[in-house]
Amino acid sequence: MNKEMTTNKMGAEAVPKVMLNMGIPIILSMVLQACYNIVDSMFVARIPDADGIVNAGECAVNALTLAFPVQMLMVAFGIGTGVGVNALLAKSLGQRDEEKAAKTAGNGVALALIIYAVFLLFGLFGVKAYIGSQTKDGVILRMGSSYLSICSAASFGIIMFSIYEKLLQATGKTVYSTIAQVSGAVVNIILDPIMIFGWFGLPATGIRGAAYATVLGQVVSMLIAMFLHYRKNAEIKPGIRYLKLESGIVKEIYVIGLPAIIMQALMSLMTYSVNVIFATVSQAAVTAYGIFYTIQQFIFFAGFGLRDAITPIVSFNYGMGSGKRVKQGIFYGILYTEVIMLAGLAGLELFAGPLIGLFAMSEETEVLCVMAARIIAAGFLFAGGNIAIQGVFQALGCGFYSLIVSLLRLCIVVLPLAWLFARFGNAAVMIWWAFPIAEFAAILAAVLFMLRANKRIIKPMKGGH
Q1: pLDDT value of position 3
Q2: Are residues 428 and 282 in contact, defined by beta-carbon separation less than 8 angstroms?
Q3: Average pLDDT of the segment spanning 29-35
Q4: Does position 424 have pLDDT exceeding 80, yes or no?
């Protein structure tokens, strides 16, 4: 038996320690990922007026906002599949089944290639119609179509990286996944101004430059993660034969991963729908939402990073049959995630004005964005519990529970409320309250489902009482 498997830190070290050791590198990499999204938007916002275009920077930020839902959908399929691979691989390692672990890894890579083929076709043939469904402004339509076509056609970087990142995380090697993500983020940040503004003798390519910088950074992350996986994941047997899809393995991956895909896809649907609803209030509201969403990612990505540590730890110990360690994983996972979200809440309430001022928007947009930040941040208290508990549900194979919580957060509550509030006389104020109300509704359901999972799954395990 592989010695690394029998002494895996997820089943041997103290849970609070291993969660921090695994979680902090993921959080740092996710936060840096959010940082380069913020930097990307900041540079794009400073695109100079040219060719008769007034407020070109604000138009470009609006275009990025309209492109976000498809980029989120790429992440949904990549990370959702990766979540299934992560949990199944960690569980297989906990059960000491090396062959199944190898098949899980190989099938994950094969599925990523199929997902990329779909987005390549969309990038070639579907982008203009998609952007046109959200705006009739010719400048924004051209900018959004140009940016999204490049990001979709070259999406193999982000999709393949999502799988290799999860393969490293599933074996507890989160430092290596962090190295890969940080490297790509640094490349993106460096290339952004060079390609957007045409530094060092290169042509200024505006919003297309932002797209080129983004996809090149993603490719760098993918290549480094691939290299580190094949060099460092000794407990996973390599081999081309494992790329052959097996229906049983694919089914197990998506029993866990499909709810995660749907959950992420719901974020895409929510953002698209919110763009359409907010456009009935004003274009400034759409742009303000896009800026706030970029800033919000800085906080949410930190929470998602800890969730990505919660899932393999709980899943590994679930595979070992250790109810005591599963319960510790749940407790500390929720605690640490809440600390992150409360820090984000405090930061936005105190510093929303200076942060949003970095984007150099019009006064109307800036006022709306500051208001949005201070209202929506109130829901972070509930969002922390939702994020952590959804990671637990994925680890325990309770994907349906995670899906219901996501539906409440991202569709069932928030969209009808946003639509309703957009029709109020003070719509510019009321629309933002849809988000914290939805988080509160979701946490009520998450707690009820967690109590049921504890009774059915955790208590019957050794040490689960």
Answers
A1: 46
A2: yes
A3: 75
A4: yes
Short-list 158, 116, 121, 93, CA closest to 316: 93
Q: Is 146 in contact with 211 (CB distance < 8 Å)?
A: yes
The CA–CA distances, whole Å, from 213 to 37, 68, 120, 147, 159 equal 11, 16, 18, 11, 16
* Radius of gyration, CA atoms only, the chain: 22
3-class SS of residue 421? helix
Closest CA to 99 of 5, 230, 163: 5
Q: For 154-196, give the DSSP string.
A: TTHHHHHHHHHHHHHHHTT-HHHHHHHHHHHHHHHHHHHHHHH
Mean pLDDT, the chain, whole residue set: 87
Tell me the C-alpha distance between 223 and 164, whole Å: 9
Q: Which residues on adjacent β-strands are paired with residue 322?
A: 462
Give the C-alpha distances (Å, rounded to integers) separating 280 from 176, 364, 431, 444: 45, 16, 11, 31
Question: What does the pLDDT look like over 171-208, one tens digit per residue?
Answer: 878 788 888 988 998 899 899 999 999 998 889 999 99
- Considering only CA atoms, which of 350, 271, 345 is closest in space to residue 303? 345
Residues in the chain: 465
Instruction: Count CB-CB contacts under 10 A for residue 129.
Output: 9
Q: What is the pLDDT of residues 324-383, one digit of tens each?
A: 888 888 999 999 999 999 999 999 999 988 888 888 778 888 899 999 999 999 999 999
Q: At 178, give phi and psi (nearest 5°).
A: -65, -45
Give the orientation angle of helix 138-153 with respect to helix 206-232, to 10 degrees. 20
CA distance 296 to 42: 14
CA–CA separation, 8 vs 173, rounded Å? 10
What type of residue sits at position 266?
L
**Which residues are paired to 462 by β-bridges?**
322
Work out the number of other CB atoms within 10 angstroms of the CB of residue 274.
26
Cα–Cα distance measured from residue 117 to residue 121, given in angstroms and rounded to the nearest whole number: 6
Q: Which two tokens stand for residue 362?
A: 């019009």
Average pLDDT over residues 450-462: 85
Q: What's the CA gap between 299 and 254, in Å, rounded?
A: 28
Question: Helix, strand or coil for residue 137?
Answer: coil
pLDDT of res. 7: 55
Q: How far apart are the first and last CA of the chain?
A: 31
Q: What is the pLDDT of residue 1?
A: 38
Alpha-carbon span 290 to 67, nearest angstrom? 10
Mean pLDDT of 437-464: 88
Residue 206, Ramachandran bin (φ over 0: left; ψ between -120 and 50: alpha; else beta)? left
User: In this predicted structure, what is the pLDDT of residue 149?
Assistant: 96
